[in-house]
């Protein structure tokens, strides 16, 4: 059982390297493991659903698999690395906006 | 618990949302100008919208004792039409001195196009000429990283802009550090599906600190949660954050930034 409510955290300032009194790894697991497990199974089910369907996939699935690969490392900043895997890495403005919507993955290639 | 909702599109919400927000401790709501979900046909449409933001909506909020403030601009989603954008920008000085107008926003980029960038630069110039605060929208999903970089460049290219008077909104794990490192304020948007979740927003403050950061719901006409700030405060309590630390993030931080506009008084 999590006893997070008994602990008091002070928020660090930007660039602070000291993180006093944060939850222990066990407390984080108690608090979030089942939710994360649920989300991971949802991802597996999504991959199964795509595989069962007829037709081709597209650049989004390629980006998705690149992002999934980021999960298999033990390096820090996994959320950031996943976001970067889906991002347009270029620097120049596009000539014109032909749509208002974002699709979640960059369709281009370097 | 008290909090400030620094980014909510209340014209798209029902009055029950005002009731629930006030009952949850909301002390003020700030409404950036936004896309209506369809392109307005003329500058006259924006004139009416600015009247709504500066006259009608503050009256609706006042019925529940909630101070309502707003920001003015043409939203990035309508910035591809530079001619229309120029007409709309010409309207803004007529409204800028109204008592609930905090500054220029939410300006920025959507698809990172040349025209959007030109309109962003025009907004930045307008804010500089009128000494206004700036609220910046950053693009969605795959466009956010590039859009944030282009926006930072545009702001830094204007020597009259003071970073401490600019908030760059909708940051996520891959953009928050570059915004804070450049001296700007950063906003985390608690929006289902496409932006930060409450747990990730708390991860970000635990990683990068709470200085020059705020949280907002950006509730609008889409699937969104007007009470996402108090819900995130509940999550912070689960993680053991103190009442004072929560108050700093959801009330004192936005109060500090917004108080740079002398009209922001609670």
Structure description:
The complex is a heterodimer of chains A (110) and B (266). Among the domains of chain A are: 21-55; 56-90, no CATH class. In chain A, helix 2 (59-71) runs antiparallel to helix 3. Helix content of chain A is 45%, strand content 0%. Chain A starts with 24 loop residues before the first helix and ends in a 24-residue tail after the last helix. With 110 residues, chain A is an all-alpha fold. With 266 residues, chain B is α/β, with parallel strands linked by helices. Chain B has one domain: Alpha-Beta Barrel (TIM Barrel), CATH 3.20.20. Chain B is built from 9 helices and 8 strands. Chain B has helices at residues 15-23, 43-62, 82-95, 114-129, 144-156, 176-181, 198-208, 228-238, 243-258; strands at residues 3-5, 26-31, 68-72, 101-108, 133-137, 166-168, 185-189, 213-216. Chain B has an 8-stranded parallel sheet with strand order 1-2-3-4-5-6-7-8. In chain B, strand 7 (185-189), helix 7 and strand 8 form a beta-alpha-beta unit. In chain B, helix 2 packs across helix 3 (82-95), helix 4 (114-129) packs across helix 5 (144-156) and helix 7 (198-208) packs across helix 8. The radius of gyration of chain B is 17 Å and the shape is globular. The model of chain B has no long low-confidence stretch (mean pLDDT 97).
Topology (SSEs and partners):
The complex is a heterodimer of chains A (110) and B (266).
Chain A: H1 25-52, H2 59-71, H3 78-86
Helix pairs in contact in A: 2-3
Chain B: E1 3-5, H1 15-23, E2 26-31, H2 43-62, E3 68-72, H3 82-95, E4 101-108, H4 114-129, E5 133-137, H5 144-156, E6 166-168, H6 176-181, E7 185-189, H7 198-208, E8 213-216, H8 228-238, H9 243-258
């Amino acid at each position: 059982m999590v006893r997070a409510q008994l602990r008091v955290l002070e928020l660090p300032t930007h660039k602070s390297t000291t993180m006093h009194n944060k939850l222990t790894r066990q407390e984080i697991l108690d608090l979030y493991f089942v939710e994360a497990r649920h989300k991971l199974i949802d991802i597996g089910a999504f991959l199964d659903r795509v595989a069962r369907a007829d037709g081709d996939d597209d650049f989004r699935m390629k980006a998705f698999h690149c992002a999934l690969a980021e999960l298999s490392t033990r390096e820090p900043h996994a959320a950031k690395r996943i976001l970067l895997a889906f991002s347009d890495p270029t620097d120049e403005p596009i000539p014109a906006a032909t749509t208002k919507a974002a699709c979640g993955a960059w369709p281009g290639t370097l | 618990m008290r909090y400030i909702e620094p980014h909510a599109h209340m014209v798209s919400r029902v009055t029950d949302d005002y009731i629930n927000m006030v009952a949850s401790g909301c002390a003020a709501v700030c409404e950036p100008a936004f896309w209506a979900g369809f392109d307005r046909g003329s500058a006259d449409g924006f004139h009416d919208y600015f009247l709504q933001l500066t006259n009608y909506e503050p009256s609706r909020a006042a019925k529940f004792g909630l101070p309502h403030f707003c920001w003015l601009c043409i939203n990035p989603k309508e910035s591809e039409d530079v001619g229309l954008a120029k007409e709309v920008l010409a309207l803004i000085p007529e409204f800028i001195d109204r008592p609930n107008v905090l500054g220029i926003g939410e300006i920025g980029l959507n698809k990172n196009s040349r025209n959007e960038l030109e309109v962003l630069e025009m907004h930045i110039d307008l804010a500089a000429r009128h000494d206004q605060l700036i609220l910046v929208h950053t693009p969605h999903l795959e466009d956010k990283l590039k859009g944030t970089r282009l926006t930072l460049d545009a702001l830094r290219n204007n020597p009259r802009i003071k970073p401490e008077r600019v908030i760059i909104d909708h940051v996520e794990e891959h953009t928050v550090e570059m915004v804070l490192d450049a001296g700007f304020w950063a906003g985390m948007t608690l929006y289902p599906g496409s932006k930060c979740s409450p747990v990730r927003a708390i991860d970000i403050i635990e990683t990068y600190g709470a200085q020059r950061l705020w949280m907002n719901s950006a509730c609008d006409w889409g699937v969104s949660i007007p009470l996402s700030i108090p819900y995130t405060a509940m999550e912070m309590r689960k993680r053991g954050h103190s009442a004072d630390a929560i108050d700093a993030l959801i009330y004192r931080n936005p109060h500090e930034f917004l108080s740079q506009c002398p009209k922001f008084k609670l």
